[in-house]
Automatic annotation (TrEMBL):
It is found in: Cell membrane; Membrane. It is a multi-pass membrane protein. It comes from Sphingomonas echinoides. CDD domains: CcO_II_C. Belongs to the cytochrome c oxidase subunit 2 family. The lineage of its organism: Bacteria, Pseudomonadati, Pseudomonadota, Alphaproteobacteria, Sphingomonadales. This is Cytochrome c oxidase subunit 2. Residues 63-159 form the Cytochrome oxidase subunit II transmembrane region profile domain. PROSITE patterns: COX2, COX2_CUA, COX2_TM. The gene is coxB.
Amino acid sequence: MIGIKSIVLAAGLAMLSVGAAQAAPAAPATKAVAAAPAATVSQDPMLAVDGAPAMAIDPKVGQPVDGLITIQPQVTPNGQQALWFHNTLLMPVITGICILVLVLLGWVALRYRRAANPVASKTSHNTILEVLWTGIPVLILLGLALPSIGLLQAQYKPAPKNAVTLKAIGNQWYWTYQYPDHGGFEITSNMLKEAGEIGKGERARTAIDGPRLLATDNRVVLPVGVPIRLITTANDVIHSWAIPAFWIKLDAVPGRLNETSFTINKPGVYFGVCSELCGARHGYMPITVEAVSPAVFAQWIKAKGGTMPGAAPAPAAAPATATASIATPGAPAPTAAVVTAGQ
C-alpha cells in the first residue's frame, strides 16, 4: 500500500513540474551584437608613396640636365623675366664688351709695338675719346639697371591676400613645412637614400622619386596659377631654400622670418637644394615641390587632414552613449521616440 502511494505521489509531482515548465514564459533570445567592422585604411588613389599626388617627372624640367649650359627652364613669371633679362640683355652685352676689349688689346699690341712705332706718341688727352669711354658705359649700365631693378622689385613684391602660405623651416639636415592657411598641419621632408644605404624600416629611392641626392620622402605640394607666399626660418643655423626653376633663393635664418612670393605657371615636379653652407650634411638637404591644379591641391589638403580657407570645419561627432536598461519581468520593451523637425 505504501508503495502504491509513493508511486502516485511521484507521478503527481512530475505532472506539476511539466505544467509549470509549459506555463513559464520562454526567456527572450539574446540578439547577437554584430561587431563593428574594422576600419580599413585605404590608400587614396591620388596619393603616391610619399603622400603627394602621383605625377610623372619630366627629366628635362625642374632638375639639372646633363650637358645643359644655360639656365633651367623657368616656370614662374619672375623666372621667365629673369631668363629673358639674362639671354636678351646680359649675355649679348657681356659678349660684345669682351670681344671689343679683346680686339682693342690686339690692335694696341700690334699697332703700337716697338717695331711699328719706334717713337712713342706723347698725346695725354683726347676729349672725344674720354667722353665716349665715359658716356657709353654709363648708358650701358642704365640700360641694364632699369630691368634689373624691376626684377628685384618683383621678387620681393608682397603676396596678395588669396596667396597660399608655405612656411619652410630649416633643420640640420632636413626641411619641415607648415601650411598655416590650411589648418596648420606639418610635413617633414628628408632625402631618400640609395638601396645600399638604407636602414631597417627606411624606403630606398626609386626612379619615380627623382634624381639621386634630390628625391625626398615627402614632397611639398603647391597649386598652379595661385600666388604663393613663402616664409622661411630655421631652428639651428642659417639655411637657404632654393628652387632654380622658380628663380627662388631665400635664406632661412634662426629667429627671423624672411618672405617672398611667386606663382607657378606649369604643373610638374621641381627640385632644389639648401644653398647655404649649414654643416657636415649640407649637401643632403634636397627640396622637392610638386605643382598641381588647385582642385588636386584641395584634395591633397583634405587627405592630409587640413582645411581650405573659408571651408567650414567638419562638425565633431557627438560621443555615442550606451544606456544600460535592466529589463523587469513583464515590462514592455522601450520604444524609440521619433523627433520631427518643428516639435
